[in-house]
Design a protein that fits this description.
18% strand, Beta-Lactamase, alpha+beta, Heat Shock Protein 90, 5-stranded antiparallel β-sheet, rod-shaped
Length: 476
């Protein structure tokens, strides 16, 4: 199983703050170490070189010197060592001597020997076996002069001084800096948390406000504090919220006007349509006695008037749904018997509709609205599908399921998402239709009013199928 690690903004801000603090501490410690080490070592080095040069210059020598004389001089120079005890070595031709029991030293490098013979003195820091040393080579110049220049005598003294104490001091400073870094980072955590809190508070406010606006509270605003980028973001959010609230209010007002217009028009048309339907019924009865052209015109007027009456009734019904004025008049019914009555009243019993309606399934529904649901689905299947149309009824103990399927080519995939839209036409070229274009939309609203669902699909074997799911016990 793959786990996705999620690091919050607060954690990232705190980590970034601590990272900056850690970089600052490490950089400061490194620079401090470098400056302290240089200062400590250079101080010891300058003191030792200067003092050794002075002591060698003050030492008198009778040349040529013997090995014993060289040893005595080495012991004397070693006793004057600053800032630490020296070990002094002397080289004079083939003679060597030292203040220790070793006549030569492995710490002295060939580079130092060459430099000491060629100049007025040299020094070098050397690490031997992990230990630091300061080595100094100082030639003696005496008696012989050529013009204004002194001539080296060939006698060179070397001083070897361990720098263990200085290195220890430097390491102590490094340890102190390292030990101080942990408390410093711990202290840095406090301002990091405070900074993260101050930065995230506007973000949390923005998230809360966005959630409230998503829930429909368009009057939500954010309190603006300060004048930074987050304050600008809050200002922008508030301005956008004001514009959105204004636009939604305008849309709602326009929608309300449109609904009111449709409702008013439907009511105004209903009265004259009632009279027109009564007249067309009389004309239909006398159509057989009229000449052929007049009879055709009478039947056309009667048919179109009936369509207009259906459209007006559907508009009034959809207006009631839009106004939240639709109500349920619930009653416990035998669902199979109710469906049979719907089919019988509309004369869909001549084999064009096949039923699979087991008896004994009882549900609490609004009989009138359930009749509309069945009639609209079956009528839609007969108009736009192919016969026979099959009506099936099932129940799982909690919900009843009704399927209305036709034997036609099915519904085009592009049409399926819009099948319950008002006045939606799958064929844009089709301007006239037997229905009002509101039948499926009214079906959807009636099913929702019962707390159920309805959806359309295509069967694998061909044909469209509409499935209605309703609770057996409708909410009051």
């Amino acid at each position: 199983m793959r786990l996705n690690a999620r690091i919050g903004l607060r954690t990232r801000l705190v980590l970034a703050f601590l990272l900056v603090a850690a970089i600052s501490v490490v950089t400061t410690a490194a620079l401090t170490y470098r400056a302290a080490r240089t200062a400590v070592l250079e101080q010891a080095q300058d003191t030792a070189v200067s003092h050794f040069r002075d002591q060698v210059a003050l030492t008198g020598h009778t040349l040529p010197a013997t090995q014993e004389e060289l040893r005595e001089t080495c012991v004397f120079l070693a006793g004057t060592g600053k800032p630490h005890t020296w070990t002094v070595f002397a080289e004079y031709g083939t003679l060597t001597a030292s203040s220790s029991d070793r006549p030569t030293s492995t710490v002295l490098t060939p580079e130092l020997r060459r430099s000491a013979h060629a100049t007025h003195g040299s020094f070098q820091r050397v690490v031997k076996d992990g230990k630091p040393y300061l080595t100094i080579g100082m030639p003696t110049v005496t008696v012989f002069t050529v013009g204004a220049n002194t001539v080296p005598t060939g006698l060179v003294f070397y001083a070897v001084m361990p720098l263990t104490a200085e290195e220890g001091n430097v390491q102590a400073m490094v340890t102190a800096a390292r030990d101080g870094a942990v408390p410093a980072l711990a202290l840095a955590l406090v301002p990091a948390l405070l900074a993260a809190r101050s930065v995230l508070r506007p973000v949390r406010d923005l998230r809360r406000a966005a959630r409230e606006m998503g829930a429909g509270r368009l009057d939500t605003r954010i309190e603006v504090k300060g004048s930074d980028e987050l304050a600008d973001l809050a200002w922008t959010f508030n301005e956008s919220a004001v514009a959105l609230e204004r636009s939604v209010a305008e849309l709602r007002a326009a929608e309300a006007r449109a609904r009111r217009f449709a409702s008013d028009v439907s009511h105004e048309l209903r009265t004259p349509l009632t009279g027109m339907l009564a007249v067309t019924e009389v004309l239909d009865e006398d159509a057989e006695q009229l000449d052929r052209d007049t009879a055709a015109a009478v039947r056309l007027i009667s048919t179109e008037t009936g369509k207009l009456a259906v459209l007006v009734e559907d508009l009034m019904e959809i207006s009631r749904f839009d106004a939240r004025a639709a109500e349920l008049n619930l009653d416990e019914v035998d669902v199979a018997e109710t469906i049979r009555k719907t089919l019988h009243h509309r004369h869909w019993t001549d084999g064009q509709v096949v039923t699979d309606l087991p008896d004994g399934i009882r549900a609490t529904v609004d009989p009138r609205r359930f009749d509309i649901v069945v009639a609209n689905l079956v009528g839609n299947a007969l108009r736009h599908g192919a016969r026979p149309v099959t009506v099936r009824l099932r129940s799982d103990g909690r919900r009843l399921l009704m399927e209305v399927a036709d034997s036609g080519p099915g519904i085009h995939p592009d049409v399926l998402p819009h099948i319950f839209d008002r006045f939606y036409k799958a064929d844009a070229a089709r301007t006239r239709s037997v229905g009002s274009g509101l039948g499926l939309a009214i079906t959807l609203e009636n099913v929702r009013l019962h707390g159920g669902t309805v959806h359309a699909a295509n069967r694998p074997a061909g044909g469209a199928v509409f499935t209605v799911e309703l609770p057996l016990e409708a909410a009051p």
